[in-house]
Design a protein that fits this description.
- The chain has 15 helices and 14 strands.
- The C terminus is likely disordered.
- The protein is elongated and about 80 Å long.
- With 408 residues, the chain is of the alpha+beta class.
Length: 408
């Protein structure tokens, strides 16, 4: 181990700046092979720990829980390592390829499914030679990407239990969310084929409906925006189950001093699930929200609880929907039910809550407007959109290249 760490220290000390494409790729290849070999050793050691009950030394029952708690692995990754370690004892061809660094840990985890107890029992009952399966699937892993390995394993398991009962698709569904220190969220999910098809259909409808001129978002960004929009639509519809007598909603708590201060005010407001956001973000969320005034006394005790007031009443929103017909940001075709009602002059700055001071904006473009972009309604009733530098975003025939701009 000392020699291994010394070698890693030497690698980390190398200056990569003088290297360029080919040289960097030549360096990367052996590193990936070393990573694969280390993954194989980790899996082999985890299996030895499991057999000897090593987790009990630290007061834990399983190596999965040890990897999560002591190794800080995610639930799915810890399960994959444990599964791989168990499988390598039954799959010598795979074990050899892993030890040589030719197969990734993820590929090994996929193939390991064929060595789980249920699959082994089915194979033995049908006279399937596991050595042949081991050789074939390892060969796929040596020459094909991870997605192809997953297909090959799925095909084998499907044929192995072709006449078995139809599995419950909900049993394999998983959704794990991890909240970071700044309140942002990353996650991982696993869906069966029908559940995945439903998700893709819902997201794709929003992705295609939300496409607009000069949209430079990546595919991943468009899908993420669609997911947020899907949640926003459901929350706005009011059809979700109630929580302790209240409809689910985004709850924001912010001090009046921070709310009226025009500065950004980072970390000034709190959300219902514990995240902190800036006062500027809180003002944006309040554009089309409900406001409740609570007067706090010494020790954080509420002294007065005012009436909840919706900033834009329903009749003003309906009028804005009829007038605007959807998001007014240049090039956007988002429908009215995607949109918030935005104050052209912020309500906290004295802007009136009436139709003349209202504009419909979808969630993404509402964010843009609160980050420097500007929408304005001309006397002829047409909307104009300007960038933070004051230039106008223009769309239409002949605008297929970079957007033309006119001075503000």
């Amino acid at each position: 181990m000392d020699e291994l760490f010394a070698s890693l220290d030497a690698l980390a000390a190398e200056d990569l700046a003088p290297l360029f494409g080919p040289a960097l790729l030549e360096r990367l290849g052996p590193l990936l092979a070393a990573q694969n070999r280390l993954a194989a050793e980790v899996a082999r050691t985890v299996r030895a720990c499991e057999v000897s009950g090593a987790a009990e030394v630290d007061g834990l029952k399983t190596m999965g829980s040890w990897l999560r708690g002591h190794g800080h692995l995610a639930v799915a990754e810890a399960a994959r390592v444990v599964r791989t370690g168990r499988a390598l004892a039954h799959l010598p061809a795979l074990a050899a390829a892993c030890a040589a660094g030719h197969v990734t840990g993820e590929q090994a985890g996929l193939i390991a499914r064929v060595a789980e107890p249920e699959a082994l029992a089915l194979a033995a009952g049908q006279g399937v030679e596991l050595a042949v399966v081991d050789t074939v699937l390892t060969g796929v892993a040596l020459t094909a990407p991870c997605a192809d390995v997953a297909k090959a394993v799925h095909h084998y398991l499907d044929r192995l239990d072709a006449d078995g009962p139809e599995p419950d698709p909900t049993e394999g569904r998983r959704l794990a969310l991890t909240k970071h220190a700044d309140g942002s969220i990353t996650g991982r999910f696993d869906l069966d084929v029908v559940g995945g098809e439903r998700l893709q259909a819902a997201l794709e409808s929003l992705v295609q409906a939300g496409r607009c001129a000069a949209d430079e978002r990546t595919r991943a960004q468009r899908l993420a925006d669609a997911l947020v929009q899907l949640c926003d639509n459901q929350l706005a519809a009011g059809s979700l189950p109630t929580l302790r007598g209240h409809k689910p909603q985004v709850l924001v708590t912010v001090g009046i001093e921070d709310l009226v201060d025009p500065a950004t005010g980072r970390g000034a407001a709190g959300l219902g699930f514990g995240a902190a956001i800036s006062a500027a973000r809180a003002r944006w969320l309040a554009c089309d929200g409900q406001v409740t005034r609570i007067v706090m006394g010494p020790g954080g005790v509420p002294l007065e609880h005012g009436r909840t007031v919706r900033l834009f009443p329903a009749h003003v929103r309906r009028a804005a929907e009829v007038r605007d017909g959807g998001c007014v940001f240049a090039g956007c075709a988002a429908p009215t039910w995607w949109c918030d009602v935005h104050h052209l002059l912020a309500w906290i700055d004295g802007g009136a809550t009436d139709l003349a001071n209202a504009a419909l904006l979808c969630e993404r473009h509402h964010t843009k407007v609160h980050h420097g972009f500007r929408v304005e309604r001309r006397p002829d009733g047409r909307w104009r959109t300007r960038r933070p530098d004051g230039t106008e975003i223009r769309t239409g025939p002949g605008r297929t290249g970079p957007p033309l701009a006119t001075a503000a």
